[in-house]
Amino acid sequence: MALNTESVVADFNLLTGLSKSKESTKRNLSRMKGMFHDDLSFDELVNSESDPLVYEFYELDIPQTAGDILFGTSIVYPGKVGGEYFMTKGHFHTILETGEVYYCLSGDGYMLMENPEGDWKIEKFEPGQAVYVPPRYAHRSINIGEQPLVTFFAFRADAGHDYGTIETKGYRKLVIEKDGKPEVIDNPKWK
Amino acid sequence: MALNTESVVADFNLLTGLSKSKESTKRNLSRMKGMFHDDLSFDELVNSESDPLVYEFYELDIPQTAGDILFGTSIVYPGKVGGEYFMTKGHFHTILETGEVYYCLSGDGYMLMENPEGDWKIEKFEPGQAVYVPPRYAHRSINIGEQPLVTFFAFRADAGHDYGTIETKGYRKLVIEKDGKPEVIDNPKWK
Ligand SMILES: [Mn+2]
Ligand SMILES: [Mn+2]
């Protein structure tokens, strides 16, 4: 009895992270209103550069049970909004007690994490570096380089995404360029 | 409150799969007695070539809870035993209803899968190809190329490994070289 159940396979280019067989979900800058600290620069960039693509990622059609694993790539493009690097929205998992691994395929950046208790941490992404996001931590990828930041991710398929908490409260910390280098500062807009 | 909990990060070279910071688990051929179909060739190779390294992989120190994810790389070296390609032992998960993703970083090979009901499937590994092993399927990586087969894997941290079933019963299918090409055949030793 061969091959009688459907297999899930997917191609993700090791350099670009892009798939030839799957469709990505795209997040243009206009979809991130209020998430960067400098609203004036945000508005300027959304209007002047025809709403640049900030990041894209893949959501595969895998059963969302506690025994399954969802996986794919995330690609954060290079860019800045008023000195703040392009990044993903960031999210908690709806099932808070679930972690996630990110393995960096190319690019240069950070994984910024914080939990509901206010603990936070930041880890470096570079090609070949894996970062584990422990359970309870919101996570956001930040591209500090000139090339796309490409990561392969995997997490429990029933974990779910809570974007609302970050959209409402913001992150406690943010990463901006200062004197040509990334610096972690307190988010002035954090509630 | 920064960085007050320990982070888990790990480097895995994108080409070789090897880590400079972590120690791998190694499987030399002598540890796989009875798993290849040709016992004579097996004995010859174990003795004559000083017990070659067949594969190695990483087991990270992550809490083994249902919400955590274990991850690492697996490296299967090129080689054959009596026409049968070098491969991993293969295993079921102790919690049978848990899946696993493998993302191929380099090399050329297959993922061979079978479930307790006797369904089986085989998927191709090549650089950039992700293969999802659904819950209930035993899984074994097979290197059919001339270079190491390197994959990045991730699964639920409490899944556990059942190697015994495969060691006792064997796989229903095996992959051997025939006329210079890989061919899937019934395993004559399967019980
Ligand atoms: Mn996540
Ligand atoms: Mn496994």
From TrEMBL, chains A, B:
One of its GO terms (molecular function) is glucose-6-phosphate isomerase activity. Residues 27-179 form the Glucose-6-phosphate isomerase prokaryote domain. It holds the Pfam family GPI. The keyword Repeat does not apply. Keywords: Gluconeogenesis, Glycolysis, Isomerase. The keyword Isomerase applies. It comes from the Bacteria. Pathway: Carbohydrate degradation; glycolysis; D-glyceraldehyde 3-phosphate and glycerone phosphate from D-glucose: step 2/4. It catalyses: alpha-D-glucose 6-phosphate = beta-D-fructose 6-phosphate. Its EC number is 5.3.1.9. It is an enzyme of class 5 (isomerase). Belongs to the archaeal-type GPI family. This is glucose-6-phosphate isomerase.
